[in-house]
Amino acid sequence: MVERVGRAREPGRARWRGGGTGRHGPPGKVRGAVALALMAGGLTACGGGGGTPKLTWYINPDSGGQAAIAKSCTQAAGGKYRIETSLLPSDATAQREQLIRRLAAKDSGLDLMSLDPVFVAEAANAGFLRPFAKGEAAPLTEGVFDTAVQSSMWEGKLYAAPFWANTQLLWYRKSVAKKAGIDPAAPGFTWDKLLDAANRTNTTIGVQGNRYEGYMVWINALIASAGGRIISDAEKGDEASIDIDSPAAEQAASIISRLARSSAASPTLSTDIEEQSRATINGPRGGFLLNWGYVWRAEKGDAEAGAIDKSIIGDLGWARYPRVNPQQESKPPFGGIEIGIGAYGKHRDDLAVEAVRCITSAANMKRYMLDEGNVAARPAIFDDPDILKEFPMAPLMRDSIATAGPRPATPYYADVSGAIQNRWHPPASVNPNTTPRKSAEFIREVLQGKALL
């Protein structure tokens, strides 16, 4: 289990903690911060020096798009500040751990950070992020997907600025769909129809089944699409309502179990992440794939490089995330990146705010989508001719993001997600009759400090 640290729980507030039930403690202190600082090897940045103020932006790995935006915003600042990027690990959990260690050590050199939406509540609740005032928040949220805005807030305040949003689509080989006699884009298309089609044509359905956050994305999307949720009353922290033991979760478990035990499953399902699952649609049994918006750019790049047959691009179709129930719209996965300001940075109240406005401007969102293939957080961008030319599925992406089902917003997200992964993995072990109940029990034990991940 990744250690949680943070300020002590105030009335009605959960907190990050390092072991134990942690329901009471000295207000305003960060327990475990000294230990984390030592583990990180003295992370607090050194001050001093003159010249143009430097803002360090910790970024998730990409192909250089964020660095290009940093350079552009530096030029636009006209000498007021310069932005330098520092690369985080590729894995979301490892990104979180590195950021926590630096923030717990009150690293004044951590000015800006690219955050997965699910970690905003944790960092905000611990006092590690500088909230935006109402006047500052307005230009960062106007014309932005509501799903992205809500994922950037905690207790009514904006703690991060949406930069790019994301969703998963159902990607499919048109020739396979035709052979199966189905239209994945038809209203009411369900997981059951998808599974039947794959089994009929002896093709695979690529999903992310490894024990990591991508698997949690799949579980959450299925439960949300069935009308359920994992937790509620997240503001109660370790006393939140655990709702995963439900008919909706039973339906989700049934889908996972059926796929994992069928010929439609990848032979390596239990270790597949995004790229491994994407590879399945290009193989001899490739048929269907549930994956993020980056797939289109990645497939085209592989075809141009000769890594896959160019005919695959013309055979690639896309549709909305499948439904669990025919009469109930699906809740596609929601992801992306949001920009937060470190609570201990020297320029957190002026230059950092200005830099965030530049990074998350509509122009830079469009630029990043064209450069990296990562989807913009402003719906108007999806109508841009340049975007439509490069991403013919842009309207579907826009509508999917607008109706997506985000993962739970809770200061204890890492523990909730870890507990679910523990009880729902491997996919072939999932049992609709027992897995939801056992996972609910385990989540409660973990939150109460009675069990470890």
Give a description of the structure.
The chain is of the alpha+beta class. It has 2 domains: 37-165 and 336-402, 3-Layer(aba) Sandwich (D-Maltodextrin-Binding Protein, domain 2); 167-333 and 409-447, D-Maltodextrin-Binding Protein, domain 2, CATH 3.40.190.10. It is 40% helix and 14% strand. The chain is built from 19 helices and 14 strands. The strands form 4 sheets. Strands 3, 4, 5, 8, 9, 12, 13 and 14 form an 8-stranded mixed β-sheet that branches. It has a two-stranded antiparallel sheet with strand order 1-2.
Features:
D-Maltodextrin-Binding Protein, domain 2, 40% helix, 8-stranded mixed β-sheet, 2 domains, alpha+beta, 19 helices, disordered N terminus, 14 strands, 453 residues, two-stranded antiparallel sheet
Q: How many domains make up the 3D coordinates?
A: 2
CATH superfamily membership of the largest domain: Periplasmic binding protein-like II
Write down the CATH topology of the largest domain. Answer: D-Maltodextrin-Binding Protein, domain 2
H/I helix tally: 19
Helix content: 25-40%
Structure at a glance:
The protein is an alpha+beta fold and 453 residues long.
Walk me through the topology.
Blueprint: E1 6-7, E2 30-31, H1 33-39, E3 54-59, H2 65-77, E4 82-87, H3 92-104, E5 112-115, H4 120-125, H5 134-141, H6 146-150, E6 153-154, E7 157-158, E8 160-173, H7 174-180, H8 191-201, E9 204-206, H9 213-225, E10 231-232, E11 241-242, H10 247-260, H11 274-280, E12 286-292, H12 295-305, H13 311-314, E13 316-319, E14 334-341, H14 351-359, H15 362-372, H16 385-390, H17 394-402, H18 413-424, H19 435-447
Parallel strand pairs: 3-4, 3-5, 9-12
Antiparallel strand pairs: 1-2, 5-14, 6-7, 8-12, 8-13, 8-14, 10-11
Helix pairs in contact: 1-3, 7-8, 9-10, 18-19
